[in-house]
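Thread: "does anyone have the structure for this chain?"

Original post by V.I.:
We have the sequence but no experimental structure in hand. Need at least a predicted one for the grant figures.
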Amino acid sequence: MRFRRRVLPPQSELDRDAFTFGPADAPVACLLIHGFSGSPLEMRWLGTYLAERGIRVEGVRLAGHGTEPEALTHLTWHDWLQSASEGLERLLIGREQVVVVGFSMGGLLALQLCAAYPNKISKVVTISSPIYFRDQRIHLIPVVRHVVRWHHIRRPGTSTDPEAHTRYHAYRRYPLIAVDHLLDLMRVTRKLVPAIQTPALVMHGLLDHVVHPKSASYLFRTLGSGRKELVWWQNSGHGVPFDAEREEVWRKVLLFVTAQV
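Reply from O.Q.:
Generated one for you, tokens below.
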């Protein structure tokens, strides 16, 4: 059997801009936070789905993302958190119910926001968020980055849907120092998790070859929330919001967002 090589679309053709959808006067709003080296496009499909059902959504673009990889060289996770905080502040104006939804690294930033705004975020959703990585070599990066500056993506992705790559934009190379900052964010966030009491939905794809699914188990077990739910997606890789089960994922997020606490 011969396999066709997957052809990636030109990255310049994919929309990497931040977005705001849905009724301006909606009582419920969602802040959508994309992942490391990605862009708001990772969350745009989910955002469109929620907005069409009456929810105000804002998909932030984190500092250094969605432009050029070199932009990540001089930034830290504090800069990424600042981008997310600014988006949250905009949604909080005149509104009592704001839900934060974070994909991958965005989930870590969502938890950081829960710790910083404990009385202002009504619910939180983490999707494919890293506590443990599949490839343990990532923990060598604090040393290796002084010798090797850049990581180049050699495979287009590990999604189960072969067309998933058309639904997101991510850098095909990025500086290893930025990964070191991601690891730092992960370590700091782990210490905060037990104190977070925000109602939480934790989701992960069982076919995730980037972040180990036991990350979701850890978050669910450790979160201090009195109301929390863990959902596994049987046929999804790392990109749960835009992979094979995406429409079911969107429905699950909608049900969680609109449910009475």
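V.I.: this helps a lot. Confidence is low (pLDDT under 50) at residues 1-12.
O.Q.: and The radius of gyration is 17 Å.
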